[in-house]
TrEMBL record:
Keywords: Glycosyltransferase, Transferase. The keyword Glycosyltransferase applies. This is Glycosyltransferase family 9 protein. It comes from Microbispora maris. The keyword Membrane does not apply. It comes from the Bacteria. Transmembrane segments: none annotated. Gene3D superfamilies: Glycogen Phosphorylase B. Coiled coil: none annotated.
Length: 362
């Protein structure tokens, strides 16, 4: 049996919140298999907040600026501050793998190698680390988890309580549903009219509805057009939002959104999710593909799109431009997802996910 590594550096500078969430099981697995190690994670804001306060992580590092070369500089600074004996990275650009290898540490620098089109990304990371002898086979079953403090859990409960009425004595209140309308990229957005139609339908069925607040530049998104039946969660940072999602989970609620970081945060906080997948392939990037039974439904729009590249999504013609080769009216894959399909998924998950209470997690 090898000796545990003492200094571990994990580098995830892909830029997306969801990218970091998919790596969380690897971070937690490395901490578990190397007890007492000083494990540092170098990543971007705002996702870095998810690891602050995580007992598995000794320190969270971020680039000092947003200019060219910032990520490479941050890696060099991390190596100069403390030389790791194990370095793991998802980041392949700007010579970062070579920089890590030159440190003399044991390195795993290509967690993207030879990916099958139907293997979830997070599971791929874990299986490669198992193959490297850094994790055990049982670690490959781990799911992303945001580790919240008792104070954060209490904040989520009180925030939700102020916006969603408590259940009636007869217990007839429907579980809450959170609608995440923004997706970070135009090509991943579900049409605003569909969101409004879904909100109307779910409100009629008795579901309390919520949506996260958005920064001013996104305030014109679909949720701004919701009626008073949709309560707005406060702008509270990623950990505060995760705490609100955890409170929704304890009421048996569901979170609906596109392929976006906050939806992955919701799943990592324990909430059931309905994911709306268009340009990204749900069998590779979906939440339900790697979650437990009944926890998530991933709806794939236009599964037969000839332009989709499951293992090279950034090379699709629509990815950066949001110009769909199949439709001048917007992403055909996103408009292919119907309101009725989403509503059915919400009903199924809320029926299969009975309300849980804080005591259940003790």
């Amino acid at each position: 049996m090898r000796e545990p590594y003492r200094e571990i550096l994990v580098v995830d500078l892909l830029g997306g919140i969801g990218d970091l969430v998919m790596l969380l099981p690897a971070v937690h697995g490395l901490a578990l298999r190397n007890p007492g190690a000083s494990l540092r994670v170098l990543t971007h804001e705002p996702g870095a907040a998810l690891l602050r306060g995580d007992p598995a992580v000794a320190r969270v590092l971020t680039p000092r600026h947003g200019g060219p070369g910032a990520e490479r500089e941050a890696v060099a600074e991390a190596l100069a501050a403390r030389r790791p004996d194990l370095a793991i990275t998802t980041t392949r650009y700007d010579g970062i793998p070579d920089l890590l290898a030159a440190s003399g540490a044991r390195c795993v620098t290509d967690l993207w190698r030879r990916p099958p089109p139907d293997e979830p990304v997070g599971e791929r990371y874990l299986r490669l680390l198992v193959a490297e002898g850094l994790l055990r086979p049982e670690d490959a079953l781990a799911r992303p988890a945001v580790r919240l403090t008792p104070a954060e859990i209490a904040y989520g409960e009180s925030t939700l309580a102020r916006r969603v009425p408590a259940a009636t004595p007869a217990g007839t209140a429907r579980p809450p549903v959170v609608l995440i309308t923004d997706a970070g990229m135009d090509v991943k957005r579900w049409p605003a009219g569909r969101w409004r139609e879904l909100a109307t339908l779910l409100a009629r069925r008795g579901h309390p509805l919520l949506t996260p607040d958005a920064p001013p530049k996104h305030a014109g998104a679909a949720h701004a057009a919701f009626g008073p039946e949709v309560a707005v969660l406060p702008r509270c940072g990623l950990r505060g939002l995760a705490a609100c999602f955890a409170a929704v989970a304890r009421r048996g609620g569901v979170v609906v959104g596109g392929d976006t970081g906050p939806l992955r945060v919701a799943a990592a906080a324990g909430a059931a999710t309905v994911g709306l997948f268009g340009p990204t392939w749900a069998r590779r990037y979906g939440i339900g593909a790697s979650s437990g039974p009944g926890d998530a439904v991933d709806l794939q729009g236009r599964p037969g799109c000839p332009h989709r590249r499951p293992t090279a999504i950034t090379e699709q013609p629509c990815w950066w431009t949001a110009e769909c080769p199949l439709s001048a009216a917007g992403a055909a894959c996103m408009t292919d997802i119907g309101v009725s399909s989403v509503a059915r998924a919400v009903t199924r998950l809320s029926a299969a996910s009975p309300a849980r209470h804080p005591a259940d997690d003790a």
